[in-house]
Amino acid sequence: MKRIICFILSATIVFSCCVIISAAEDDTPVILVPGFVETVMGIDIDGENEEQLWPFTVPTVLGKIVSDSPTLMTLIAGLAFGKFDRLGARLGSDAEDVLHKLTCNPDGSSDYGIESFSQDPALCNVGYLARHKNGKYLAMADLAKSIAAKTDSGRTFVFCYNSQLDCLELASQLRSFVKSVKKYTGSKKVRLCSHSYGGQIIAAYFYRYLNDSDVEKAVMIYPALAGTDAIKHILEADADVPFDDILVFVENLLSLSTEAEKLLIKNYFHYIDEFASSGLAELAGMWRYWGSMYSLCSNEYYELLKKEFLDPVESAAIIKSNDIIHYDLIPNLRNTFKKCQAKGIDLSIISGSGMQECLGGDDNTDILLPTKLATGACCSKYGKHFSDGYKAQHSTCTDPKHSHVSPAMDIDASTAFLPENTWFVEGAFHGAYYNQEYSKNLIEKLILTDDIKDVYSDSDYPQFGYSDNVNMGIGFGFDKSRPGFLSSDDSEIVIKNLNNVTPIKILSVTASGLDIKFDAIKSVTVLPGKSVKIKYKGIIPKVKAKRTDITVKYVEGVSVNTLTRGFTVDNR
């Protein structure tokens, strides 16, 4: 049964987006712009006849399961014979029954008057939201409270919105909300902090309303600036789920660490493609006419999906807005951000990297958004890297002295929308920034202070960092070089146990493509939260921009694991 739960969670991760909460050290009000389907949606929200449709409530789900239990039990029994597609189709059909009121008409309108929680600043500040109905309308409460506690929760606001709408419509609503917050607080400026779809909404806001000059700073976390290819897989109900990355995601989601591998047996994992595809097929009609789905579609597939799913006459309104988004807003993101900076607006982007897309594809992603689309950076394909000796293209950043190539040699940030103000966190999952100290602290520092002006401001937060989520198991780097690099100044590798509960045992450390040998290890034990240093012998060659893979083999609990990380030899 646990294996089935993991399958279901894995198949639905594309819908689990997040909101982040922020506040400013100088009492400037902060507006949080949540991710896709993160805010509550329903009918008569917070009214006498409230009907919450998303997220669906536990009683609603339990009621559906109980009423459909005979069929579900039969289908679960069929899993023993590999009939995962039938269970996926049934669960998709049940979900469609629960969520059918979220279906839109071909013109993008709704027959049910779907709405979100109030956009009244008096009601949607973090202080009120945290108290109201036990925090029901406060998404990502842990991070929200963490940041609000450092300032004034009454001056930190959540922009609640209907996720069915395209980003241009939501940008217009955000504009009104910004002005309402300014009037409510008496402030001349606000700070914006977004996650995922919220990043595209902020980009649309600047694209349309930059001359309002109402914003002092914007921090965009894992932003869907140029969309994602996952929308194609969702609308076409065609899933090709990567085992390794989904395994780690489920470990993170369920806090199972490496024990999840027992629940997700690789030899049977191909069944999840059938499970996910059949479930998506049942749900496809629900979001087919959501304007947001086409806003979030990557430019590569927009025309294809528009022709496949939208009638030129019936869906003219959806097409009109999204043509502007895909043929003007997205192609001009660099221009828009450059204009923002010229007006003195402080912009920052944080992106995840190092994983394959959850529903299929070969891009380098944060498991949902391709890193290249979130940041504008040139990226190698997942699992690949640039050739040794690679030189940054410097198409956006033209300073040859700036180094913008990742240690794994898979990202060239010199081509990004914001080369000097974009941070990349390898191994960071979309939506999981709140449970890793590295990203959480960087977010808070960027939005709460003015200490970090660019990727060179703080040595603790270089442009390329690594997730320190406990489910990553370990983290490692060399003793003298900056994270991800290796030179003749180094003499040992430092390995940290990221788990605060379970000790680990280091079995071996190896390097590919380099003539160095690490000292013999006899099951070195590393206590929770502690580090160990291991020396090596050999000569680091006098080269620059040469990649090497460092692999650490270790035991955590009863599982033997390996973690391989790309490093750049920078020794000239």
Structure description:
Helix content is 32%, strand content 19%. The chain has 572 residues and is of the alpha/beta class. A hairpin with a 2-residue loop joins strand 20 and strand 21. The longest helix is centred in the first third of the chain and has 19 residues, at 167-185. Residues 1-25 and 254-265 have low confidence and may be disordered.
Short description:
This protein has helices spanning 2-11, 58-67, 69-77, 84-99, 126-131, 141-148, 167-185, 197-209, 230-235, 243-254, 271-287, 291-295, 299-309, 316-329, 333-342, 371-375, 437-448; strands spanning 30-33, 41-43, 51-54, 115-116, 156-158, 190-195, 215-221, 346-353, 378-379, 411-412, 422-426, 464-466, 474-478, 485-486, 492-497, 504-511, 516-518, 524-526, 531-538, 544-556, 559-570.
